[in-house]
Design goal:
One of its GO terms (molecular function) is arylformamidase activity. By secondary structure, the chain is an alpha/beta fold. The protein contains ten helices and 15 strands.
Length: 343
């Protein structure tokens, strides 16, 4: 096994004993066996790593608010989004059902000059800034906590771990790891953007934490927000292949770090969280296969941390109160979210 080349994001992390590129399934099996939370919170658990967030954690997070500045970490929800139709994922379609024109012309049927506007939106739940729920990904036919996938998610939805179970849970300490900005100088870049295909390893995360300082220490129950800079790039240059194409992201070798850090969730500014192309030939999102069904870890995708990152860089304070509640859509395996960071 080779060691990670920190200058290029290629090669294998020294933290990973099981990236065997010639044996993807064997690597996945070994990683799942070594890093697994099934039964940790009982056989009936539906929250996974959100169990790490408790009342004391929320009080810790609330104490981080110093200035009252608030930052939305959401991309826009509109037809100008990144989706291109893969697996029937489209951008949101927003339609007005009542308008000011109708009100002016008296077409609404209300008395005494009363008028109003109504609207409707149609969209896949994974089309923009979102959480992956615990029913979103399976590993060899098993869902979170070892349940049979077919017993969990049917045509009726997620009957066990539907996203509504997390509706009041995600208020905690957030930590921004601006990996793009931290690693940029070592890559010969001054734009704060990692190149597509760059695999972020535990060594890179540790390097980022060291450079950012003590407020970046990752603790039990945190939500970690990873900024790669890819969203900055596509915001400037156009979407291109943002949805499903090459991207910087977490290496498969970060699975042990995700497990032992006891974080409640992790989110990135990319479409698919992990590095793309994936690190195994013929594989599809193998880190998802470990993180969601085996660790019970909530994954956020397509977040926009750019404004927050500027504020954090300005005063070297990288932790904050984060609220990121999913919509309580009964039986859903994911949800749009408007994460709010308060400093």
């Amino acid at each position: 096994m080779t060691t990670q080349d920190t200058a290029t994001g290629t090669g294998e992390s020294t933290d990973s004993p099981v990236i065997r590129r010639e044996d993807p399934l064997g690597s996945i099996r070994a990683m799942a066996a070594a890093h697994n939370n099934w039964g940790r919170w009982g056989q009936d658990d539906v929250l996974g790593t959100l169990n790490f967030i408790d009342a004391a954690k929320r009080l810790e997070a609330a104490a981080l608010v110093k200035t009252g500045e608030a930052f939305s970490l959401s991309q826009p929800f509109d037809t100008n989004g990144p989706q291109k139709g893969w697996r029937r994922r489209t951008n949101p379609v927003h339609t007005m059902t009542d308008t000011g024109v109708d009100a002016e012309r008296g077409n609404q049927g209300f008395p005494h000059g009363f008028g109003g506007a109504d609207d409707v939106i149609a969209m896949p739940l994974q089309c923009s800034t979102q959480w992956d729920g615990l029913g979103h990904i399976f590993d060899r036919g098993k869902a979170w906590n070892g349940r049979s996938a077919g017993d969990v998610v049917t045509s009726e939805g997620d009957l066990v771990t539907g996203i509504e179970t997390a509706a009041a849970k995600i208020v905690t300490r957030g930590v921004l790891l601006d990996v793009g900005r931290a690693l940029g100088p070592g890559l010969g870049r001054n734009d704060g953007e990692l190149p597509d295909g760059f695999a972020i390893t535990p060594e890179h995360l540790a390097q980022t934490i060291e450079l950012q300082g003590p407020s970046s220490e990752v603790r039990r129950g945190d939500i970690v927000v990873i900024r790669t800079g890819q969203y900055t790039r596509v915001s400037r240059d156009g979407w291109g292949d943002y949805a499903g194409g090459s991207a910087p992201g977490l290496s498969f070798s970060t699975a042990p770090w995700l497990h032992r850090s006891e974080i409640a969730g992790i989110a990135t500014d990319t479409w698919g969280f992990e590095v793309r192309p994936n690190e195994f030939d013929g594989a599809f999102q193998p880190l998802h296969q470990i993180a969601i069904p085996n660790l019970g870890l909530f994954l956020g995708e397509m977040w926009d941390p750019d404004a927050l990152a500027e504020a954090c860089a300005a005063d070297s304070r990288y932790d904050f109160l984060l609220t990121a509640a999913p919509l309580p859509i009964t039986g859903a395996v994911g949800s749009p979210v408007n994460p709010i960071a308060v400093r």
